[in-house]
Amino acid sequence: MADQTKCEQCPLRTLEVFRKLDDKQLGFIARFKTGELIVEPGSTILLEENNSPHLYTILEGWAFRHKQLEDGRRQILNFALPGDLIGLQAAILSEMQHSVTALTRATLCVFQRDKIWTLFQEFPELSFSMTWLAAREEQMLDGHLLSLGQRTALERTAYYILHLYDRAEALGLAGNNALCAPFGKGHLAEAMGITPVHASRTIKKLHERGLIRWTDDTILIRDRDRLQALASFESDPTMRRPMI
Amino acid sequence: MADQTKCEQCPLRTLEVFRKLDDKQLGFIARFKTGELIVEPGSTILLEENNSPHLYTILEGWAFRHKQLEDGRRQILNFALPGDLIGLQAAILSEMQHSVTALTRATLCVFQRDKIWTLFQEFPELSFSMTWLAAREEQMLDGHLLSLGQRTALERTAYYILHLYDRAEALGLAGNNALCAPFGKGHLAEAMGITPVHASRTIKKLHERGLIRWTDDTILIRDRDRLQALASFESDPTMRRPMI
DNA sequence: CGGACTGTTGATCGGTATCAATGCTCGTGG
DNA sequence: CCACGAGCATTGATACCGATCAACAGTCCG
Questions:
Q1: Of B236 and A154, which is predicted with more confidence?
Q2: Residue B205: inside a domain, yes or no?
């Protein structure tokens, strides 16, 4: 554990968005954490139907949750950014019904699942945080369901870019309307439930309307107001959130 | 509280699917519950953006969670059945980002939100249950996201009928391949992200293929195997679940 | 009886998928 | 160093799924 990040000095915890923990809680988290895992882009972190003994949080990097049909059609459910919990479903329900794959090289904090019960017994605040995180994830999924069900590809894409931008910004990973996107248009397509071909056309249209500019690996929001109007996106007030 | 159901005699708790609580927990729940609310079909239980002071559980009846865009397009996120928690997001995140409407006449158990903190402090098992319920809801939403993003209207409808059947069956509200559906085809359409017109045609096609029969308010599954194959649905082993 | 609501059916339109060809970047090996 | 192929993105042509518009039937209820 020499070269690993100590929870007490976790760089994420200095960010505004995250609630501060008291020493007792932080001490427990530090003991709860059993190590770090570094994964390469494209590698599988958790596999559907497996029952992983671990719970993770992302310390650095991006990942995505996804799920697929037997014939191979795949849907990206959501992206996971630093501070996000990975594997809560497996930890609580003891079965994973989706996979998680690293998008970039990523560092994960590894927690041992069998200590989660201690967490619930001794740390009501942290238990609350667990529920909080689950409820928030649910809220995001609700938003995406509305998107997939009701928005057109264009609106949906606009919405998603704003969504990702706001999440990244809160973590200091975006700013000045520029989002450094570590994924290709194919990934966006899979998240939008459209084909890569159509994603390309959709992005082009957003570009032509002067709303965004997507160069290499950064997405620039050129006219947030009109982009929001198109998407009927409303940024929710960034509330401070807990982090395990 | 004379004519109300006492938690100790709650008819739901005798069902196989629900985990048993010990007396201490049950006693707390009974004190946590402040009353019952009876709502008529179509009435709003929770409204988006409001911050309701209540947390509910459905004792009897059906409801649905939904969310809409400014221009009126509406998506049904999920249906809620007896034993399901309503308003967890409001209770934990202090803002509701979706509405909940009663589908049938329904009886709700009302809990006071400010006691939820006591629950986390004194009842680790119940705290775990909260997280469990949130994680399970998340899992269902994941499934629906896959549906909306990747399945065709036909597959999606097949999937959803099976999904609802299984949930209802666990509660004794369906059996013998017959699901008593207290909603119209319009509601199904809103859940599927398609128009009522297309829902009608889709159901007709499922009927023609001999997979289902939808008469009045009951849906009969006539060939579960082929319906499952079409939907690429896999019923998850009905695990016992907690109930608040 | 008439009106509202839900569902059905047909005709046509539009959004997105599919198929196919091309260009591009990049890493690899000759 | 260049040739090559793999993977990703773009563009065009066409096909299809589901939306939209419109008319009508059935049921419920005042």
A1: A154
A2: yes
Number of domains in chain A: 2
pTM over 0.70: yes
Is A16 within the bounds of a domain?
A: yes
Residues B162/B227, Cβ–Cβ less than 8 Å: yes
CA distance B176 to chain A (A): 27
Same domain, A18 and A133: yes
CB-based contact B145 A93, cutoff 8 Å: no
Please tell me the distance from the alpha carbon of residue A129 to that of residue B16, in angstroms, as a whole number: 30
Name the nucleotide with the smallest C1'–CA separation from A198.
C16
CA atoms within 13 A on the CB side of B97: 22
CB contact under 8 A, A92 and B132: yes
* Residues of chain B with C-beta less than 8 angstroms from the C-beta of A69: 146, 150-151, 232
User: Are residues B15 and B134 both part of a single domain?
Assistant: yes
For residues B158 and B206, the answer to whether their CB atoms sit within 8 Å is: yes
Same domain, B29 and B128: yes
Distance between CA atoms of residues A39 and A99, nearest Å: 15
B contact test, residue of A78, A140, A146 with most B CBs within 10 A: A146
User: Are A116 and A156 in the same domain?
Assistant: no
Q: Which residues touch strand C (CB under 7 A)?
A: A 152-154, 193-195, 197-198, 202; B 184-186, 196-197, 200-201, 203-204
Q: Which of A115, A143, A171 is the last residue of a domain?
A: A143
Q: In whole angstroms, give the CA distance from residue B10 to residue A181.
A: 51
C14 C1': nearest CA residue: A152
CA distances from A41 to A46, A79, B92 (A): 14, 14, 34
Q: What is the pLDDT of residue B139?
A: 97
Among residues B123, B143, B163, the one where a domain terminates is: B143
- Strand D-contacting residues in A 135-154, CB cut-off 7 angstroms: none
Which residues of chain A, if any, have pLDDT below 50? Answer: none
Strands B212-215 and B85-86 turn out to be unpaired
pLDDT score, position B2: 53
Does the beta carbon of A157 lie under 8 angstroms from any beta carbon of chain B?
no
CATH of the domain at B157: 1.10.10.10
Residues A132 and A12 in one domain: yes
